[in-house]
Design goal:
heterodimer, A: two-stranded antiparallel ribbon, 72% helix, B: D-Maltodextrin-Binding Protein, domain 2, 6-stranded mixed sheet, 5-stranded mixed sheet
C-alpha cells in the first residue's frame, strides 16, 4: 500500500477531518472552500508538510462538494461554482426528488473529481505548458463563450435575460480600474467601501437567499410551508446508478470542460460549471427540460465544478501559477513551509507530488462516503418549517458575508442590499441567474479585453487575427448562440401551439 | 428572536383579518433580524482596560493575498509577537483601502493594527490611496523586516543580462522598444521610475521614449505578459520567480534576473543590484529596499507602542524567527517606533523627488 507509505495515518485522518469541515463550510451559505483553507492556513505551519496537504486538500474537496446541498435543497448556491446546480437541483427538490438530486450530484462530483485527478496525474506538465499558450484574446473569448449561457437560460424573454446579464456586468465593473487606480461607476458616498467593488459571495447569497425569503414572506409563511414537499416520491429515493447509463458523454464533456477551464489561470471555477451547463443544454436531446428538474443539468454542473479542482492544480503544481482563488491560498501553505512552487516542483518534490495525488484520491472517496450515506439526514432540512430555517439562514448568511473578506462590515450591507435588490428584481422582471452570470464574469471579461488591446496597441482586429484558437473559439461562440436562439424560438413556437 | 417570531405568528392565527398584518410582520421580522445582526457586527472588540494589551489583536494587512510577502512577513512576526506580548494575534488579508478604513475606525487600545510595506505611503503619493491615509495621520510603529528580493526579470533568451544593459541595447538598436510590466501605484512603479529616469539621463529621450509600460496586477499576470510577448521585462521577486530561472526549466518559461533594487545583494543569488549596475537618479545611486512596518491609530496609548517595540526587539533577535524569514529570502530590519517615523518620512521625501520627475504611466502605456 504505497498510499499509506506516502500519506501516513495522520495525513489520512487530517484529510478526513478536512473533508468533513470543508463540507460544513460548503453547506453553509456564504462560507466557501477558499475561506476554509484561509482559516486553517496558519495552523498548517505547525504540521508536517504532507499532513498539511492532507488537511488542505480535504478542505478543498469538501468545500467545493458541500455547495451542492444548499443549492439543491434551499435554492441557495453554497459556493459560486454551485450556481448552475440550483437550476435543476432545486426544481428536483420541489418535485419531491431532493434525495435523488443530492445523490445524483454527489455521484457526478466524484466522477468529475476522479476524471480531473487522472488528467492532473498524467498530463499536468504538458497541459500547464498548453495553458500558458492561451493569450488574453483566447481567455476573453472563453469568457464570452461562457456568457452565451445567458441566451440559453433566459426565462421567457431573451431580451430581458440579456439586459439582466448586461446589468450584472455593469455592476461588476464598479470600483477601481487597476491600470490607472481611478474609481469608476461609484457614487461619491461609497468611494471607500466600493474601492474593490461588490464582493461576489454576499451578492450571490443576497440575491438568492435574502431576496427569496422576502418574496416568500410577502406571500405568507405558513408554519409548515416546507412540509408539502415530499422528499422522495414513494418509499425509495428514486436514485439508481442507472441514471448515469446514458450520461457518459455529458459526464466526460462536463468533466473535461471543468478541468480545462479550471486550469486556465485567471478564468476561474464559476466559469467552469457555467460553460459545462451551457454545453450540456445545447447538446441535450431535451433542452426544454433544463431548469425544470433535469438530472442531466445537475450532472453537468457538479461534474464540472469538481473537475475544476484537478484543473486548478495543474498550473499550480506545474508552474507555480494558481488556477483560482483557492489554489492561490494553497501556495501560501507551501511558502509558509519554505517550499517554492514553480516549474520544477513535481521533479524536485516527488514525495509531495505523490502525496497531493493520494490526498486527492482519499479526499474524493471520503467525500463520497460521507455525503452519500449521510445525505438522507441532510435532506431532512426541507422538513424544517420556514419560520425556523429562514432566520437560521439569515444568521449564517450574515456571518459568512462578514467573514468572507476577513471581517469587512460593508460585505454584510452588500448582502442586505442585494437581498432587497433580488426581491425588487423578481417584481420587475430582471432575471437573477443571467444577472449573476454577468456579475461573476464581467470583471474578467473586461480585464482580458483590455489586456488584449494593450498587447495589440489598441488594434480591435486582434480578436479575429490572434491565431487558430481564437477562430475556433469564435466558431464555438457562434454555434452556441445560434443554437440558443434557435431553441428559444422553438420553445416560443411550442408554447404558442399549446396555448392555441 | 425565534421564540418571539413564533409566538407572534401563533397569536396572529386568531383571525383572518390578521392575514395581511402577518405577512407584513414576517417581512419586518426578517429585516429587523438581519439589521440587528449587522449592527452587532459593527462594534470592534477589544480590551476596555487602559494601558493593557488586549487579549486579541487583529493585524490587518494591505494585501488581499495570503501567498504574498506581506502576509508571510506579518504572519511570522505575529506568531512570535503573540508570545512576547502574551496575546493572540490574527492576520487578516483585507487589502490596502480596507485596512486603512479598519484602522481609522479602530479603538486606541491596539486591538487593531496594520502591517504593510512602502506602498502604504507610495500609494498615497501615486494617488492609489486617499490623502487621508498619509503617514502623518497614523502612529508609525516599528519597522520589522525587508524583502530584499525585489527584482526585474526577462526571458531566458533576452539579448541583455542586466537592467543597465537593456538601456544600452535600446541605444544600440534604435528600432527596438522595451516594455516593462509593473503594477500602478506601488513598489514596482517607483523602481521602474528610477530605471526610466536613469535611462533618460544617461541615453537621452531617444532611448527613454522607447521604454513602455504594461500595467497589470498580480505576479501571475506579469509572468503571463512575459510569456505572451506583451512585456519584455517584468517586475518580480526572488521568492516568486527564482524557480523559473533554474537551468532545468523549459526554455518557453525560462526567466533571468536583471537586477535587484535592494541596497545589498541577496546571499546565495548572483544578481547584481541597481547600484552595482551604475543606475543613478539625481546623481545618487538608486536603491529601494521594500520594508515592512506597523501603522496604528493616531491616538494609540504610548504604553502599547512601547510594549510592541520592546517585544519586537526581542523577536528580531530570535534566531528561530530569523530562520523562518530566511526560508523565503526575507531579512530582519528592526527600527524602533521612535526612529521609524523620521526614517519613513525621510524615505518618502526621497521617493517624492523621483515621483516629481517620473513620467505619467498613461503617457508611456501601450
Amino acid at each position: 500500500m504505497e498510499i499509506l507509505g506516502v500519506l501516513g495515518p495522520t495525513s489520512i485522518l487530517l484529510c478526513f477531518l478536512g473533508v468533513f469541515i470543508g463540507m460544513i463550510f460548503g453547506t453553509i451559505p456564504g462560507m466557501t472552500a477558499t475561506m476554509a483553507i484561509a482559516i486553517f492556513l496558519p495552523i498548517t505551519y505547525s504540521l508536517e508538510m504532507i499532513d498539511s496537504i492532507g488537511l488542505l486538500i480535504g478542505l478543498y474537496v469538501g468545500g467545493i462538494s458541500g455547495g451542492l446541498v444548499p443549492a439543491t435543497l434551499l435554492n441557495i448556491p453554497g459556493t459560486p461554482s454551485s450556481l448552475c446546480t440550483t437550476f435543476d437541483g432545486y426544481p428536483m427538490t420541489q418535485n419531491g426528488e431532493g434525495e435523488k438530486a443530492l445523490k445524483v450530484g454527489i455521484t457526478a462530483s466524484i466522477i468529475g473529481g476522479f476524471f480531473s485527478l487522472l488528467i492532473l496525474y498524467f498530463c499536468a506538465p504538458f497541459l500547464a505548458s498548453v495553458a500558458i499558450d492561451f493569450s488574453a484574446v483566447d481567455k476573453f473569448l472563453i469568457i464570452i463563450f461562457a456568457l452565451t449561457i445567458i441566451a440559453s437560460i433566459s426565462q421567457g424573454s431573451l431580451l430581458g435575460g440579456m439586459f439582466s446579464g448586461l446589468l450584472g456586468i455593469f455592476i461588476s465593473l464598479m470600483g477601481i480600474f487597476p491600470d490607472n487606480n481611478e474609481l469608476r461607476l461609484v457614487p461619491g458616498f461609497w468611494e471607500e467601501e466600493l474601492y474593490y467593488g461588490f464582493t461576489l459571495l454576499p451578492v450571490l447569497i443576497g440575491l438568492f437567499a435574502i431576496g427569496q425569503m422576502l418574496k416568500e414572506a410577502e406571500e405568507g409563511m405558513k408554519p409548515a410551508a416546507h412540509q408539502d414537499i415530499d422528499l422522495k416520491k414513494g418509499k425509495k429515493s428514486g436514485f439508481s446508478f442507472g441514471i448515469f447509463r446514458k450520461q457518459g458523454v455529458n459526464l466526460v464533456r462536463s468533466s473535461v470542460l471543468g478541468t480545462f477551464v479550471g486550469m486556465l489561470p485567471g478564468v476561474g471555477g464559476s466559469a467552469a460549471s457555467i460553460t459545462a451547463y451551457s454545453q450540456a443544454k445545447n447538446f441535450s436531446k431535451q433542452p426544454e427540460k433544463f431548469g425544470k428538474g433535469e438530472p442531466e443539468g445537475l450532472i453537468s454542473s457538479e461534474s464540472a465544478n469538481n473537475g475544476l479542482i484537478g484543473g486548478a492544480l495543474i498550473p499550480l503544481l506545474s508552474l507555480g501559477i494558481p488556477g483560482d482563488s483557492t489554489t492561490a491560498i494553497l501556495i501560501g501553505a507551501f511558502l509558509l513551509q519554505g517550499i517554492e512552487v514553480g516549474p520544477l516542483f513535481i521533479t524536485s518534490n516527488p514525495d509531495l507530488w505523490n502525496g497531493i495525488i493520494y490526498a486527492l484520491i482519499v479526499a474524493n472517496i471520503v467525500m463520497f462516503i460521507l455525503m452519500f450515506f449521510s445525505i438522507k439526514y441532510f435532506a431532512k432540512i426541507v422538513y424544517i418549517p420556514k419560520y425556523i430555517i429562514f432566520p437560521i439562514i439569515v444568521v449564517m448568511c450574515v456571518v459568512g458575508s462578514y467573514a468572507i473578506n476577513n471581517g469587512v462590515m460593508f460585505d454584510v450591507w452588500t448582502l442586505l442590499l442585494f437581498g432587497l435588490a433580488g426581491y425588487i428584481f423578481m417584481k420587475i422582471g430582471i432575471q437573477i441567474p443571467p444577472f449573476l452570470i454577468g456579475f461573476i464574469l464581467g470583471a474578467q471579461c473586461e480585464k482580458y479585453f483590455i489586456d488584449s488591446l494593450k498587447g495589440s496597441n489598441g488594434e480591435l482586429t486582434v480578436f479575429f487575427t490572434d491565431g487558430p484558437m481564437a477562430v475556433f473559439l469564435w466558431v464555438l461562440i457562434l454555434l452556441a448562440l445560434g443554437y440558443s436562439l434557435f431553441g428559444n424560438k422553438k420553445n416560443k413556437k411550442n408554447i404558442n401551439q399549446e396555448a392555441a | 428572536m425565534l421564540l418571539l417570531s413564533s409566538a407572534l405568528l401563533k397569536a396572529l392565527k386568531i383571525g383572518e383579518e390578521w392575514c395581511v398584518m402577518k405577512k407584513i410582520l414576517v417581512v419586518v421580522l426578517i429585516s429587523i433580524l438581519a439589521l440587528v445582526l449587522a449592527a452587532c457586527g459593527s462594534s470592534t472588540s477589544g480590551s476596555e482596560n487602559s494601558g493593557e494589551i488586549p487579549d486579541r489583536v487583529r493585524v490587518v494587512i494591505g494585501s488581499t493575498s495570503t501567498g504574498g510577502d506581506t502576509f508571510q512577513n506579518a504572519e511570522a512576526a505575529s506568531r512570535y509577537l503573540e508570545d512576547e506580548m502574551s496575546t493572540n494575534m490574527k492576520v487578516d488579508a483585507i487589502g490596502g483601502v480596507q485596512a486603512f478604513d479598519e484602522l481609522s475606525k479602530a479603538k486606541d487600545d491596539g486591538s487593531t493594527v496594520m502591517f504593510f510595506h512602502d506602498m502604504a505611503y507610495l500609494g498615497v503619493e501615486y494617488g492609489a490611496f486617499n490623502e487621508e491615509n498619509k503617514l502623518e495621520n497614523w502612529e508609525i510603529g516599528p519597522v520589522v523586516s525587508i524583502n530584499p528580493g525585489n527584482a526585474f526579470l526577462t526571458s531566458g533568451d533576452a539579448p541583455y543580462d542586466t537592467m543597465a544593459e537593456s538601456a544600452e541595447w535600446l541605444s544600440e538598436n534604435p528600432d527596438e522598444t522595451v516594455t516593462v510590466a509593473i503594477q500602478a501605484g506601488g513598489v514596482s512603479e517607483i523602481i521602474f521610475d528610477g530605471y526610466y529616469l536613469w535611462a533618460k539621463e544617461e541615453f537621452g529621450t531617444e532611448v527613454s521614449d522607447r521604454i513602455k509600460v504594461y500595467v497589470t496586477g498580480s505576479q501571475e499576470d506579469k509572468n503571463q505578459a512575459l510569456w505572451d510577448g506583451n512585456a519584455d521585462i517584468i517586475h518580480g521577486s526572488i521568492g516568486a520567480n527564482a524557480e523559473f530561472t533554474k537551468e532545468e526549466v523549459e526554455d518557453k518559461v525560462k526567466m533571468k534576473f536583471l537586477g535587484l533594487s535592494a541596497s545589498e545583494r541577496v546571499e546565495g543569488y548572483d544578481i547584481p543590484t541597481f547600484a552595482e549596475q551604475g543606475i543613478t537618479v539625481n546623481g545618487e545611486e538608486f536603491t529601494f529596499d521594500k520594508e515592512f512596518f506597523y501603522l496604528m491609530p493616531k491616538d494609540i496609548e504610548d504604553s502599547y507602542v512601547e510594549q510592541l517595540d520592546q517585544s519586537l526587539e526581542e523577536v528580531v533577535s530570535n534566531e528561530s524567527y530569523q530562520e523562518d524569514l530566511s526560508k523565503n529570502a526575507y531579512i530582519t530590519n528592526y527600527i524602533s517606533a521612535e526612529e521609524s517615523t523620521d526614517y519613513l518620512l525621510e524615505k518618502r521625501e526621497e521617493v517624492n523627488k523621483i515621483i516629481e520627475q517620473a513620467p505619467d504611466l498613461d503617457d508611456i502605456s501601450h
